[in-house]
Structure formats: C-alpha cells, structure tokens
C-alpha cells in the first residue's frame, strides 16, 4: 500500500541517469540490501521491491538502457537465458502454476522505471488475481486478429533483422 499511495516511494527524479536509478544502484549494495538474486556477465536477476506475487523477479541489464531494441545481441541472449533460469529457480522454490513474463516499454505502457529496461518474471497460482489490471494496469481493447496480423506483418518486414 505504501507504493500505491506513494508514501514510501522516492521521487522518480534522477531515474534517467544511472546515478539515481534504483536498478543501477542495486548492484553496488551489500547482498542483504540489494535483493539481487543472481549476477551474470551482462544482466542480473533482482527481486521486485513491490512484487505482484512472491518470487516476482526482474531481469535487468547492467547497462542503463531504456528500450529493448537498444540491447546488444549478447545482452539479449543473456537476458533470455536468465529469464529461463529464473523460471526454473522459481519452479524449484515454490511450484507456481504458471508465469507472466513481460516488459513495459515507456511510462505510458506501465513501466514504473522506464529509463532502465527490466523483464518481469512473475509466478502465478490459480486464483491469485487477473493479469491485465494487476500487471498491465490496462483494459483490453479488441481488434480483429486478421487486422492485427496484417499490421504486424507489414511492420515486421520494414525493420532490420538485427542491430
């Protein structure tokens, strides 16, 4: 409730710079304060300070980068590998029934800290809540699947395959 009301949340000023970013700062804290679960060469796994469910992990690149398309190929591969390993570790620890995986790109998409990319790995259990209003903080806007496929196929062919 402190997060929802804003009472225990620091002002978001400074998040744009690594010196004020909680994800950049977390890796320099002592283990008992950082909530970092695992460290890789390019990314790390950290518990979400405001979890949707117990075991809610964030996979973050060490590099202060906001957009998924700005990750290097090596960062992308390690982020994916850490996401898989996080799921395996959570399954081992607490046997969830499923997972939500995702990134919110930009404040308008629900990113609490939009300046530093992070992948959510949220364990789910039957009856624990509905995904869209809880994580997405949004309502569904319907669109015919054929229309969506056409839009995405056109956009997909217009972007480069790497870089």
What would you note in describing this structure?
There is one protein chain. This protein has a single domain (2-158), classed as HIT-like (HIT family, subunit A), CATH 3.30.428. It has a 5-stranded antiparallel β-sheet. It has helices at residues 2-5, 22-26, 31-34, 73-94, 131-136, 145-158; strands at 36-39, 43-47, 57-61, 98-102, 119-124. It is an alpha+beta fold.
Brief overview, please?
The protein is α+β, with helices and mostly antiparallel strands and 163 residues long. It has helices spanning 2-5, 22-26, 31-34, 73-94, 131-136, 145-158; strands at 36-39, 43-47, 57-61, 98-102, 119-124. The chain has a five-stranded antiparallel β-sheet with strand order 1-2-3-5-4.
Text of the CATH class? Alpha Beta
Strand order of the largest sheet: 1-2-3-5-4
Low-confidence stretches: 1-6
The name of the CATH topology is HIT family, subunit A
Q: What are the SSEs and their pairings?
A:
Blueprint: H1 2-5, H2 22-26, H3 31-34, E1 36-39, E2 43-47, E3 57-61, H4 73-94, E4 98-102, E5 119-124, H5 131-136, H6 145-158
Antiparallel strand pairs: 1-2, 2-3, 3-5, 4-5
List its salient traits.
163 residues, alpha+beta, HIT family, subunit A, five-stranded antiparallel β-sheet, 6 helices, 5 strands, 34% helix, disordered N terminus
């Amino acid at each position: 409730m402190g997060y929802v009301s804003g009472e225990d949340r620091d002002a978001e000023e400074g998040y744009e710079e690594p010196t004020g970013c909680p994800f950049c700062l977390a890796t320099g804290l002592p283990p008992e304060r950082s909530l970092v679960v695992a460290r890789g060469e390019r990314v790390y796994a950290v518990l979400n300070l405001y979890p949707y469910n117990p075991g809610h992990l964030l996979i973050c690149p060490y590099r202060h980068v906001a957009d998924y398309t700005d990750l290097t190929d090596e960062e992308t591969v390690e982020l994916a590998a850490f996401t898989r390993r996080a799921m395996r570790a959570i399954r081992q620890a607490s046997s969830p029934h499923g997972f939500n995986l995702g990134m919110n790109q930009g404040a308008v998409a629900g990113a609490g800290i939009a300046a530093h990319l992070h992948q959510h790995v949220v364990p789910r259990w039957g009856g624990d809540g509905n995904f869209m209003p809880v994580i997405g903080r949004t309502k569904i806007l319907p669109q015919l699947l054929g229309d969506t496929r056409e839009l995405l196929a056109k956009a997909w062919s217009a972007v480069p395959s790497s870089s």
